[in-house]
Batch of 2 targets.
Target 1
Amino acid sequence: MLGTELKKLISWIQPEVCFGCNKCVSGCPVAEIHNEYRPNRIVRLAYLGFVDELIESGVIWYCTQCLKCSERCPMEVYPASVIVALRNIASKRGMTHEAWVKMAKNVSIYGKILPDMGVMSKDRKLLKREDLGLVTPAISRDLIRRLFKESKLPIDIGE
Ligand code: SF4
Ligand code: SF4
């Protein structure tokens, strides 16, 4: 039942053994605030072949990848990995969520997903890394360029 594209990415998982115990749901921080979000539902829908629908709904991008669902699952279904596989398929189709594209752009500029925000000193001065004598790690532009190319992210970081 699992589509070929998805099966290739998660050949080591057997989503069909999920027996609906809901242990993954009870630990999921997203399910706690979003009634419609259920890791086991995503797994079941993926197993039934609703890959396009899952990608188009955007639900796969809600996951924080905290891995609680995968740790709690007694059947080793690994919902978090199923979600990553779905994201990979979405990205290959050029459907990476805009927030992820933005984070990737930040990686190309700052070497991390968020720009430096600094810290506030006791006398309320905003201190940056260089104020604290911290070295900013060098970014390998070749590596970043290759990663973007392979992930098909719509980002041009130039030469
Ligand atoms: S990895 Fe994602 S789906 Fe699993 S518990 Fe964490 S937020 Fe929920
Ligand atoms: S914990 Fe595992 S077996 Fe239980 S509902 Fe979630 S995916 Fe299915």
Target 2
Amino acid sequence: MTAKTAAAKYNCYKHINMKKNKLGNTDIYVTPIGLGVLTIGNTQLDLPLQEGAEIVRYAYDKGINLFDTAQYYETYPYMREAFKDVDLSLDNPDRPVIASKSLDCTYEAMEAAILECLDALGMDRIDIFKMHEVRQDPDWDDRAGAWQCLLDYKAKGIVRAIGVSTHHIDVVERMAGVPECDIVFPLINYAGLGIRKGSGAGTAEEMAAAIQKCLAAGKGIFAMKAFGGGNLTGTYMKALDYVRDLECHTIMVGMGKKKEIDDLIAYAEDRLPADYQPDVTFKKIHIDQGDCEGCGTCLDRCPNKAIYINERGLADVNYDICLTCGYCAPVCPVRAIIMW
Ligand code: SF4
Ligand code: SF4
């Protein structure tokens, strides 16, 4: 079934009033809101396959055209199920734009990650593939093999656009000077939560300035963590307005409920009043102190240094800086880290 037939069957697209933004110098057009698929997966809501796929499909049917996932998220099955009747070929102008990424450092591992993604989603080419979570120097240089692989797969036409996701101002600034980098996916929110600079914290203003350099250099910009991992959802409009005013091409938001999708689409279509505030239920990472063995693995994995070892020798979370990204959960050997 083609996307148009699917649209007719599911009565799709009737609400689509969202304009699309051109992603920098690429010829890819995306809606100003994208769905971060992390949220439905096993590091966060851990939704059953059909339930998670329904969220992805709902977002697509309501008009969102950009879906960002990652090898690390283990969410490809949801997307495969959600889009099982959609023509995902790049020849279909109504296709969902799919972006994935990998933490891998070497050429071989990045190649395997690209091929795994294509196979898992039943595609022969993909719009966007990125290096996932590039950190401060020397991480970029250490991952030169992975970047070369992305360059080669772009040259072969298998990946249309390549780039990086990062929490680091240094990396965003550096990408402005890398001509082959098409897409930059920086962490940005008005409070500066989770923004890194060198080995310490950076500010929202510094990251905003780095983003402007990338915009001037023709990069496509996805904005990450506009709500600071849920910590800024209580100032809903302020959080979104801040990022939108930076003229990022899309705001990528992890959504696990249809209401959240409806709200963000209404925002993108300027249908929300300036004082709109959704009823939000904050979900947090919890470390089961009965299961934790104090091994410390999660401390190294946390990008924001939000986990510490408490006086009992067990892991605990500093909620003032936790981004609710869920990255720590999969590395726990005893599954002591959960989100509810
Ligand atoms: S503790 Fe760290 S890795 Fe875990 S959810 Fe919070 S910010 Fe993310
Ligand atoms: S990885 Fe798991 S067991 Fe190890 S310190 Fe963290 S929560 Fe505890």
